[in-house]
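Supplementary material to the annual report.
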Amino acid sequence: MTAQDRICIGAIQGAFGVKGEVRIKSFCADPAAIGDYGLLTNEDATMSFDLRIVGPIKNGFSARIKGVQYKDQADALNGTTLWIARDALPNLPDDEYYHSDLIGLDVFDTGGEKIGRVISVHDHGAGDILEISTPKTKSNVALLPFTKAAVPTIDLATKRIIADPPEGVF
Amino acid sequence: MSRSVWKGPFVDAYVLKKAAAVRESGRNNDVIKIWSRRSTILPQFVGLTFGVYNGQKHIPVNVSEDMIGQKFGEYSPTRTYYGHAADKKAKRK
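Predicted assembly:
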């Protein structure tokens, strides 16, 4: 399984209390959802964690991990990132995409010429925006509105986006 | 203290001109580059896309009805935080 098949959804930030609970930081859109994905692994998938959220605390959650009973065991996990398989994410309706699926896709214009590559997805409250790394602008970055007009085709199988950038993007 | 009602909403004149020009041309998908973060979003801007300057680049802002009365700058943050993608979703409109 490659790194692209797995997604980082959180991290362990050390022990919480003295009874073996850990402090969890969630990267999920809904932070509490970190407990819904079943078995989590570390970055290289050599360890797995059966996590149960106990409750919210400042900057995250307290949780219990099966097999971790003492504070020093919990402290030893400090800094461990928590990963799930991409397949564990539920399917989405049409025209909805996971950021992790969009990041890394190559962007081509309607003529077939490569424009660049998606490096991140933003939402500042006025629609989603694709940030594209491209040599076509002075700053090497372009921001493309994530609309049907500007991004008519997304092909996740071939990892390509066909874009029709409106005037003013480049 | 809030702005007096008799003055009406503040909008830089060039923003109105640029928006009107794009409306007339019928190319509503074009990104209208503006530097005026202080301008109020008016009803005639709905459906247009503005590139609002954040000090480095122009952030595309698709204006919708529920944004009327707010300022352009509210949708173009000046500090960007790159978090983890995790299970976050984007919807193509």
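Chain B has a mean pLDDT of 92.
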